[in-house]
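Readers of this paper often ask what the protein records in our data store actually look like. An entry from our holdings is shown next, in its original layout:
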Amino acid sequence: MSSFPTTGSSTKLVTALRTVGRSRTGAPRISIVVPAKNEALNLSVVLPQLPRVHEVILVDGGSVDGTIAAARRAMPEIITVTQARKGKGNALAAGFAQVTGDIVVMFDADGSADPAEIERFVAALTEGADFAKGSRFTQGGGSADITPIRHAGNLFLNTLFNIGFKSRYSDLCYGYNAFWADMIPLLDLPDHTLPPAADGKMSWGDGFEIETVINCRFAAAGVKIAEVPSVEKLRMFGESNLNAVTDGLRVLKTLMTEWRRARSHRRMERKLHLERVRDMRTATGTPLTGVANLVA
């Protein structure tokens, strides 16, 4: 497991979020969020393997195979939510909105994630990380599912991310992650309750690019990140909803958009800092020479 601080500009906001709301104790309440679409067979196997936690939240994306009924049979206490739009991003946003625990675990329904690894993610967070990032490409990680094309695409996108955000991720496009629930406002995700677009197109942030959005926003905010080794297993039943080409392009677009967003936020913070310095120097009669150099 490796940890690293990021160089974002919202350190004060991160500190404020840590001090309000849910507690950060050595025995946190864990909320597992499971987005699913037509995963009835997989959930029947996966849900009984999950550890006993505070809550498991299933977000259904319009399944037609009895996914919700199968989930309730496997885990009667499960919380079920129906998302307003389509896509994994919208499902996760809807699930995050229902969380009442202290730690959020993002968990896929297809059987590729090992429930036994949840303990690793929780340990990384209780040891001081804000965000525990699963990685198939760090020591102890691996994958039985990733294809050479997807591996090459992930390496390319991961390199772009590290250059743009001055980070040290080893696995950008992986959805097994966990973070403290008090970080949810920092993500500022699209409103999950809005109806679908009239033209039927998926809204930005609603697709598989959500994992990149989350990674970018935590990195831009300067949170403490710990990479957790994870072994991705083969999907048990059914076919993946992921498309390597179209979803890869959405991730690339997301990187560019999030880089511009982070840059804009840094400029705004520098501008606000400059205004505070000017106000202070005006009040004290100190010359303003050189203050303008604070803004890039």
Remarks:
- The CA atoms of residues 40 and 70 lie 5 Å apart.
